[in-house]
Amino acid sequence: MALSAAGVGAVSGCGSEKEANPQVEQAAQRARQVASAWDGSQAAALWRAGYHPVEQAVQLPRGGLHNKADKRAYQTRNFVLRGDLPATGPKNGQVAWASGKSLTQPLIAANAAYKTLAQARIDGPHLAVTGARLGTMTLATTRGPATVPAWLFTLQGYTSPLKRAAVSPSSSPRSPIKAAHDLPDSQLAPLGRLIQLAADGRSLTVVAYHGACDDGPAVKVLETGGSVVLSASIQHPDESNCTAQKQEKQVTVELDHPMGNRILLDAYTGGPVVHREAPGRD
User: Fold this and answer.
1) Sign (positive/negative) of CA torsion 143, 144, 148, 154?
2) CA-closest candidate to residue 138, choices 110, 97, 93
3) DSSP 269
4) Separation CA 280–CA 204 (nearest Å)
5) Rounded-to-integer distance, Cα 138 and Cα 145, Å
6) How far apart are CA 59 and CA 119, in angstroms?
7) Is the pTM of this model over 0.90?
8) Vertex 94 angle, CA 91 and 97, to 5°
9) How far is residue 172 from each of residues 48, 169, 187, measured CA to CA in Å?
10) Cα–Cα distance between 143 and 122 in angstroms, integer?
């Protein structure tokens, strides 16, 4: 199975090849234990019944942002409010899938949604919001594309709105297996967030962590009928006089089979790898 890493250097390996190294086999055994614990569990049923997006909750105006200044303002979350936002709205909203199934979720207020966009107050380029109305948007989720309530923010200078999902993801269920705190990070380390899932479901990108004095992260994958378990580790960590810096690297993992409705799991934590909004725009 081919693995690759975004940025300088690439990681390759195989999730199914037989490993002779006892430490590697210990990590592989942990991945199998995680897959087995989730297979047929109540946690798996709860996860599959929830709303779990696999892409950003924000969609830019049709055609994208006009120029570098506006793109910079968006990246730095530098927004200003030059109008009124709806003070009231429905308490709940419906997330709907093409299958006909739906889920009721609490609605995020317009002002709260705006604050997730506007987290900076700095000099320089900014985007001006002049108003908002409640509408819908389509987001990719673990259950396929979903129509979700969204706040449609009017931007000064744009003819189409910036959309922000007006409902939050479902909470992750409690994992049926405890985290593997007893393994060193050279064997098994926690993953960060899910960045994206390819449209064809055959690859996904996650954030993996490493330090300043190592060869970067590696991510191996175990595919089963019900889950995809990712095992992250740090390659050749240097434990000498090295500064303790936690660095992120985006790693793209190729799958043998489309993701489908399988659950993406972290072998270290034993829980799902979820998509979260990053401090900066990915």
Assistant:
1) positive
2) 97
3) T
4) 20
5) 6
6) 17
7) no
8) 170
9) 10, 9, 25
10) 39
Residues ≥6 apart with Cβ < 8 Å to 165: 53, 57, 58, 108, 113, 137, 139, 148, 149, 150
24-63 in b/e form (b: 16+ CB < 10 A) is beebbebbeebbbbbeebebbeebeebbbbbbbbbbbbee
Sequence-separated (6 or more) residues with CB below 8 Å from residue 82: 128, 129, 130, 156
* Structural Rg of the chain based on CA atoms: 21
Instruction: Note whether 254 and 2 are within 8 A (CB).
Output: yes
* Interacting residues of 56 by C-beta distance below 8 A, sequence separation 6+: 277, 281, 282
H or E element in which residue 18 lies? none
**Ramachandran region of residue 170, left (φ > 0), alpha (ψ -120 to 50) or beta?**
beta
Q: What is the pLDDT of residues 181-197, one digit of tens each?
A: 888 767 888 999 999 99
- Residue-wise pLDDT tens digits, 12-64: 334 444 445 666 788 899 999 999 999 999 999 999 999 999 999 999 999 99
